[in-house]
């Protein structure tokens, strides 16, 4: 009975938490949108009207940022605000996270690799970018160096190590699946592996 309850919890909990998270986000944005409606003395039209307003405003903002003068003005304002240390710290952190989540940055230099260790073991890492900052390039010995990220299990943080490209083994494995495998310390099985194992078990049972 204990195993059955645990199995039910492990299957239902991720779904419930995901729905709760997205619903909370929907409620928060809907309240902000309704607040904007209230500024123009417009009562709540229907549930979700504020959320649709926020999405519309974000879409319009995306169109405006494609116009050079608007983008230049925004960058100018950000550069002025970056003079304040506290704002710079907060903005830079949020901007870095947003950049990681942006689809524009996906598959640009991100490569799953194996790094050979001294005891003949391997560590899974990720080449996040092929661009090496000039200060590091000048400080390192001759060679083709690349930054490799080693994420820590169950954590967003990781260790960035500079490794020679010749010491890396490229792996034909998608960034998303490899990252999920690394962050969960191998608990999260990559897609397709379970099906393969199930098929092998079925073949063994058939042979017996």
From TrEMBL:
Transmembrane region(s): 12-29, 49-74
PANTHER family found in the cross-reference section: COV-LIKE PROTEIN 1 (PTHR31876), PROTEIN LIKE COV 2 (PTHR31876:SF26)
InterPro entries: COV1-like (IPR007462)
Organism: Photobacterium angustum
Annotated region described as Disordered, given as residue ranges: 186-208
Start-end of Basic and acidic residues biased regions: 192-202
Protein name: DUF502 domain-containing protein
Protein origin, superkingdom: Bacteria
Keywords: Membrane, Transmembrane, Transmembrane helix
């Amino acid at each position: 009975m204990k195993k059955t309850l645990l199995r039910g919890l492990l299957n239902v909990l991720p779904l419930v938490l995901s729905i709760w998270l997205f619903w909370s986000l929907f409620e928060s944005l809907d309240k902000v949108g309704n607040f904007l409606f209230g500024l123009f003395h417009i009562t709540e039209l229907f549930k979700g009207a504020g959320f649709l307003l926020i999405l519309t405003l974000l879409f319009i903002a995306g169109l405006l940022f494609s116009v050079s003068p608007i983008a230049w003005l925004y960058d100018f304002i950000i550069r002025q605000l970056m003079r304040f240390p506290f704002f710079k710290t907060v903005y830079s952190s949020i901007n870095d996270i947003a950049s990681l989540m942006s689809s524009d940055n996906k598959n640009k230099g991100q490569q799953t690799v194996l790094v050979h260790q001294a005891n003949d073991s391997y560590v899974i890492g990720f080449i996040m970018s092929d661009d090496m900052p000039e200060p590091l390039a000048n400080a390192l010995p001759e060679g083709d160096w690349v930054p490799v990220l080693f994420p820590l299990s169950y954590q967003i943080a990781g260790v960035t190590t500079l490794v020679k490209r010749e010491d890396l083994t490229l792996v034909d494995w998608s960034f998303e699946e490899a990252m999920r495998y690394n962050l969960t310390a191998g608990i999260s099985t990559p897609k397709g592996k379970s099906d393969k194992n199930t098929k092998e078990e079925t073949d063994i049972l058939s042979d017996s």
